[in-house]
Design a protein that fits this description.
- The chain is globular and about 30 Å long.
- Helices cover about 40% and strands about 20% of the residues.
- By secondary structure, the chain is an alpha/beta fold.
- The chain has one domain.
- The termini are far apart.
- Strands 1-2-3 form a three-stranded parallel sheet.
């Protein structure tokens, strides 16, 4: 089995994954990260607080990536 990232892309899916759902998915074997494209900085902070440190979060947009560093 390979390793997988899933995408939280509300503009395309019409659904925003909650931080709790992202946490549950991060516990599934083989899922190692998420591309978080909601643009919601509050959601990003909540995800960062509850996730395992090895779980990767990729953000969309240069401004948001810069803000994720701090």
């Amino acid at each position: 089995m390979g390793y997988f990232y899933y995408f939280n892309t509300p503009i395309k899916s019409g659904f925003t994954m909650s931080p709790q759902l992202i946490k549950r998915l991060s516990d599934v074997d083989g899922i190692i990260g998420v591309k978080e494209s909601s643009g919601d900085l509050i959601q990003l902070q909540k995800i960062k607080q509850i996730k395992d440190p090895s779980f990767k979060i990729f953000m969309e947009g240069t401004r948001i990536i810069y803000l994720q560093l701090f």
